[in-house]
Amino acid sequence: MTGSDRPTLFLWTPVPPARTGTADYVPILLQEAPAGLFERFRLRFVVDSAANHAIKHFQDHAVIGPEAAVPNCHDHTIFFLANNEYHRYCFRGLMTPRPGVVISLVHDLSCAMNVIGMCHAREHGFSPDDLPGFVVGELGPHRARLIREVVGQGAPHFLRTSIMAQTPMLLASDHIIVHSHYARLRLLLETRPGFPVPPISVMDHPTDQATTMLDEAAPSLIRQSSSRFIVGLFGWVSAAKRIIPVIEAFASFLCQLTEDEQSKTLLRITGHLHPLRNHDPAGAAMRAGIAQRVAFLGYVPQPELERLMSETHLVFNLRFPSCGESSGTFKRARHLGVPVAITRYGAFNEERADFYCSCEPSREPSDILAAIQAAYEEWQRHGNTARLVARDARRVPAHESAHSVLSRLLL
Questions:
Q1: pLDDT digits over 267-286, tens only?
Q2: 184 to each of 106, 188, 267, 344, how far by Cα in Å?
Q3: Which of 83, 164, 176, 400 could be disulfide-bonded to 108 (CB atoms 3.0-4.6 Å)?
Q4: Distance between CA 268 and CA 285 in Å, rounded?
Q5: 3-class DSSP state of 81
Q6: Domain 3-109+166-204+399-410 has CATH 3.40.50.11090
Q7: Cis ω for the linkage preceding 365 (within 30 of 0)
């Protein structure tokens, strides 16, 4: 089929230049997509009209608003769901019955924090009265009715970070894609008995071709030595990524160095700094007396992010108490040959990394400091650091490739 005869594939997701890694995910995913996908479907990117009204095309495909995304029975729709404000419009899309096949690709399974913020801000037609409808699938109808009252009285933070709030997704989807066995098991075990759960695929996080080619050539390459020791954090800057504990551990590390040695170190924080009342990384650096050794770069486009990451000697990819089901920055660092430290928590328990940090408050600071010290000693000996484990090493069975999942579900 050609032209208007082809069915349409509606992709509900932010796209660049939206300042979120989930927007950068889309072109990487399409690189791995089977060629037949573009022959069978017309692609339409569905973006939040308020946020991306000036974008008309992306990668030669039309960009439309939600009001224009009207599928017929032959069309397919994929909702990309994440725990950040750029994806809030997708929840309204899930609430609208759609003919054809509906697939949900879940970046972050626990979305209660995002949903609560959206409902209290009365965005996309939602209000606090809608909160029970997001949680009835996991809490049941009686406890779901209490959620608005509990949140209104100042719910404990762990509720906001542990509740999935994915009932609309479960009801709307014919198939679900997640990026970890952990996410699949949570959906199966934490959804109340008798509530429908569609088939779930565990898909590997895609990696862009340029990074993969660089990694495949890594055995014949030697990372250039550097005159500065650089520790990095990449992605959306939030409390759950343990930015402040890393800053505090870096300050403790600097206390062990001479003034000259300190001048050759840098902690680089790259990503959108979300203004939160109780989370002030810049203030933490000031209080620790190391503001001159900490650089906040804000959001940078993907090519610049990769350049910065490639010259980093240790990447921290920590998560607690909220944990996404995958991390593009984790996989990118691994493919670039950069050592990574992760938290032994949630979906990250499936991965193998160069360093592990506990989420226990009594152990986390020393674990972070130990990783910095080990990477620094390696840098002192060789002028650089090297990845210690294979790029795709895991502690669980391998995930299905994006190419395989998309072929199976769409072709």
A1: 999 988 776 667 899 999 99
A2: 10, 6, 35, 18
A3: 83
A4: 12
A5: strand
A6: yes
A7: no
